[in-house]
Amino acid sequence: MINLISNTITRVSSLLKGLQVKRFLAVVMLGVLLLTTNTYVTPGDNKALGKEVRDRAHLNDTQRPRTVGEWQKEAEEVKGNPVERIKRIGEDSAEAFRDFGSGYVEGAKKIGEQAKNSAVDAGKEAAKQVRR
Length: 132
Description:
Layout: H1 2-36, H2 45-57, H3 68-77, H4 82-131
């Protein structure tokens, strides 16, 4: 019985030490992130930033809600009708996944084009070096 209690205390103390190390590393990483970012926000920028975020939220031609206010309005419209609410959530989620997937396709195309251009530039540079 004493051995069981001793083993339990040992395991709990090692777990707490592990959590402290993880917490310390998280704080260090956060500090590095904050110190290395080069963004400064001034009080006057907040209104312009809010307007820009609202404008960008509606860039895509989509029917699903984009802001918290729109989500709340939609929830109020179907209040008391859980079937309709679940249906709308499913439709909104499907549309969001389509948009998300198309973003990956567009990103992959851009990266492929950049890689192709970099390879062509590297080939030209290598050809110049060989000619010398």
